[in-house]
Write a structure and sequence with these properties.
Length: 123
């Protein structure tokens, strides 16, 4: 059965309205996601890592107390913290996206699905 022209027109108008609404939110979306930082700290609180939403390191703090580890243990700890900080930033990006675009936005759904897949792969 074919749709009535009025129904098709109404659906198209609703799609256009949603697209305009989403476009209006893009500036806020970019700003919210750009402000996201992911953080991780060692159990001994002697190493701290912060990354931006791209995963680039913005802060790396290694206290003198951390230097009592051998080089391999210190390297392993820093890498593990980087991984945790990146995961934290990804969660933050998904949360920031949902706050601006709404939980029902396809981009938010894609981010959450990617996070779930990464969590399952790491489990």
């Amino acid at each position: 059965m074919f749709e009535q022209p009025e129904d098709v027109t109404a659906r198209i108008q609703a799609d256009i309205a949603r697209a305009r609404d989403r476009a209006a939110k893009m500036g806020d979306f970019r700003a919210a996601v750009a402000a996201v930082r992911g953080k991780a700290q060692s159990q001994r609180r002697d190493i701290e890592v912060e990354v931006d939403v791209e995963g680039d390191v913005t802060v790396l703090t290694i206290t003198p107390a951390a230097m009592d580890r051998d080089a391999r243990d210190l390297s392993d700890e820093v890498l593990a913290l980087l991984h945790r900080a990146r995961a934290d930033a990804q969660r933050g990006a998904a949360d920031a996206s949902a706050a601006v675009l709404g939980d029902d936005d396809p981009a938010v759904g894609a981010l959450r699905a990617r996070l779930d897949a990464a969590r399952e792969a790491g489990a």
